[in-house]
Amino acid sequence: MLFLFPSEFPSCKAQDPEQTVVMVAICDFYRKKIKIRVPPPLLDWKTVNEKMPWNIVLLLGGGFALAKGSEDSGLSIWLGEKLTPLESIPPAAIALVLCLLIATFTECTSNVATTTLFLPILASMARAIQLNPLYIMLPCTLSASLAFMLPVATPPNAIAFAYGQLKVVDMAKAGFLLNIIGVLVITLSINTWGYYMFNLHAFPSWANSTVKP
Length: 213
Description:
Blueprint: E1 11-13, H1 21-29, E2 35-37, H2 45-51, H3 54-73, H4 75-82, H5 91-105, H6 111-128, H7 133-143, H8 155-163, H9 168-190, H10 193-197
Helix pairs in contact: 3-6, 4-6, 5-7, 5-9, 6-7, 7-9
């Protein structure tokens, strides 16, 4: 819409600079030649092309497209069904392993791309093993923000690495400890007060794909 709105109100200017406002109105009334100055729009493509962070747009758009494609093609459901052997593992261990997996994967990609890719798969897996999807998706979503080890994990890490005279090894050592503490706190919370706050002991009806609307 900003490409359509003018930056200022259009104005009319007669060819004769000494012509009065009344004469301009008369000339306009009789459809004489009047120079109309068209103001530029509020936004033009040159500004958008120079200022738009296209890398972020492509990253987020690619993540959303990948998640949508996995969902529409049935890939998420297929991968979820392939993880049904995890049904024999205690739910607390499943949450811990998946949180560690997400925390490791998010060191290489953004948290938005990680959650967009993994959450549909985790939801399908939880439905396949008859486990409350929130029990898996909530801690994994929080674990996607545990990007402490590598400079490429998140923009604040890159800024600190560039201006703090740090080495990758230094960030990896400190970030590894923070990741472990974060995963333990998240899994402990979801298995204590979070278990009862979100009623995770019951399989919700909205997660049952066999229920007719």
